[in-house]
Amino acid sequence: MEKDGRPNWDSPMQFVLACVSYAVGLGNVWRFPYLCQLHGGGGFLIPYLIMLLLEGLPLFYMELAIGQKMRLGSIGAWTSISPYLGGLGLASVVTSLYLCLYYNVINAWSFWYLFHSFQSVLPWGVCPINSNRTGPTEECEVATPTQYFFYRETLNISSSIEEHGGIHTGQALCLVLAWAITYLFIVRGVKSTGKVVYFTATFPYLVLFIYLIRGVTLYGAINGLKYMFTPKMAELANPRAWINAATQIFFSLGLGFGSLIAFASYNQYNNNFQNQAIVVSLINSGTSIFASIVTFAIYGFKATLNYEDCLDRMRILLLNTFDLAEDAISMDSVLEWIEKLNTTYPEQFAQIADKVREGECNLEKELDTAVEGTGLAFIVYSEAIKNMPLPQLWSVLYFFMLLLLGIGSMLGNVTAIITPLRDLKIMSRMSNELFSGLVCVFCLLLGLGFTTTSGNYWFTIFNDYAATFSLLFIVLIEVIAVSYIYGIKRFEKDIEDMLGHRPNWYWKIMWAVTSPLLLIGLFIFYIISYIQGGTPTYQAWNKELGESVVTEYPVFGQVFIVLLLVSSVSCVPLTALYAFCRKRKERAYEKRPSPVSTVSV
Amino acid sequence: MIAYADFKIESLAYFSKKMPNHVRWVLQQIKSRIERLNALFRPVMHYNCSAHHEGTNMTEEASNISSDTAAYPWSKNEMFLFRAALAFAMRDYTNGEEFGVSDIHPCDETERVSFWFVVTRPNTTDLVDKGTVEMAIKKSRNRINGAFLLTDQTLEFDGIYPTLAAPVSPATPPWLIVFGVVMGAVSVGIIALLVYPLVQRKLKKNKDADDEDSDEETGVKTAEIGANDGIYNSMFSDDERFTQM
Description:
The complex is a heterodimer of chains A (about 600) and B (about 240).
Chain A: H1 12-23, H2 26-30, H3 32-38, H4 45-70, H5 74-81, H6 86-116, H7 138-142, H8 145-154, H9 169-186, H10 190-216, H11 221-229, H12 239-252, H13 259-265, H14 273-322, H15 334-344, H16 346-358, H17 363-368, H18 374-386, H19 391-423, H20 432-447, H21 455-466, H22 468-499, H23 505-532, E1 537-542, E2 547-552, H24 555-569, H25 571-591
Antiparallel strand pairs in A: 1-2
Chain B: H1 9-18, H2 23-28, H3 34-41, H4 50-54, E1 61-65, H5 76-93, E2 104-107, E3 114-119, H6 130-139, H7 141-148, E4 155-157, H8 174-214
GO molecular function (chain A): L-proline transmembrane transporter activity; metal ion binding; proline:sodium symporter activity
Main location (chain A): membrane
Subcellular location (chain A): Membrane
């Protein structure tokens, strides 16, 4: 314990691991490989690393410095910097609250899949049989078994956001478990969190390593790796690549939520956070690259498998139509045979010509299907896993890793809510454990809404809108506040006080010039794309077609999106206004002449 | 239906050399000469299935053997096994009618292991209707599959969909069991973490009480132990910290 009674990390290593565990999350696994694939494979690393230097590192350093100096959560820290800026901390807390509400639902899904891996036949590998016992259920036939398992059995999804339904009890149970585990890990504050992060930060790397070995030895993995590593330099000319790189670095490091400030506030005053900031940022980016190698190996495997399945279907079709001997056509010669039969029996071929064209087998096309987000993690990966030998083992390992990544990030998110609220002293009468418990129960009850049949659509709203725009705004105000309102000179002195040396010119230029400009650019870009994008749309699952269709949000959905954005962003001006009014009242009160009355004794 | 046999090309050519003008007439008279011709020319006795394909009375079955890896080693012996298995299926379904191998007639064989076949009643040439044959095959599907060491997916009877095995549903879904284990462990962990410091504090209080009793008279009385046992004299206390104006 320090003199002021604030708990501390047991060692600087715990702090570093906590930051790594928080920053390395699901986005590294499911967003970065998608961006890599979208923007030309290996070439995407160039804008990614440049953005890391220009905005990732400086902003990360800045948040750690603020937290360690002020030794308070985000609300207290920003109020100390300037009383008008308390709203920044409040906005961070509100955004973290939204994040907590929906992020643990992903952990609930990971639990669901993990528990379902303990079966002899993985349930997403085969379609369930319909009531007549003549074949698979129709929905499963038009879609794939993995999609069916995700959309029907895991989510029991309705066909649009307007259709409500009951709570999926299995999901609700898993959500309760996810919150129980989160509570277990934060109940003692940094004392318990500090011990847990040893495991949550390191075990995913072990699993990723195992998957790397398994992945590159899979049949066809080399196709995926070749696809990833052939850089398409032309993509670099596309401004979207740079914007996506900037956004990815920004969200991947978890800036603006207040978690980094909260974690750093538990540091010793003289902790050398400069080196730690560099180390954590590099580990985060390295993990993204590592995870995308694994993902591309798996992509290659899955694409090759699909391609060969497609060839086999063509082969059977040709054999059936032309009644050839079984071994006349082999897998390699399917395409030649299509040519041959087209020329020798044109009329007969014309009958099946449509089918051949539809099911045209193309390896590039299979590799091109870039997927991100929950679709990648729960559908594409599950499909790849079910084809591996000993799929139960791989499935357990994979979902356990997803769970650790998710819970590691949750620890940071919940700490970002609890630390500033505790520092506000309004809750100081309650014990730590009770307060943490109340926050967890509150988030659990609201999170149950995401387990209803339309819950996944609300989840998508939160995922796409709750934290994206507001974070940009928050961090932009943060960096401007530190550089210009607080002043770089004062900030420098504070850092010298803590570390013993001033930050060099690289940091100062980034804080004062580059990062604000970059953030303003990103901010303007987001506003333009919101305005230009028209009505926001979402992917609704259509069970007759067995695929997702693009649907527009209804009016109440759009209103909700606006509310989400406004509620966190407006904290900043509203709190500034409130502080301004209070200051004016105080000043008016001081200026009033105090009544002096003498009492003659 | 009148059953008649076609000849293979060689036998036709032989006949045409001898009786060029009576070829068709000979072929149509064949019904009574089946036995003799069998012995002479070993013709392939098969029904002209193509005439039946377009018609609506479909008494044939098509069967396919497809395999995804190697070609199934088909031979005349395998065909014999097929006919025997079908004969068994017919006997089993009709409870004893003595179907034999000769009552199963494959036709339209192709390069691929795929052919049509018809079934006739024993000792007659009356065809058995499609519905009965289908029911018989459905009943003994597993046995027929087993005879060829194939599965429903690799041995296909056109038009007969396999009845899939009923899904095995255990009393408790297995995932619930794992969930229960993990939830129990987490609950125990939470309770332990919450209760442990209370227990520690109680133990410490008991230990302090014991220590207090042992060294009562020694040492300076600090505020915790006994300094507040004196008498409170209000003369010397500050009533108000600030003088009122």
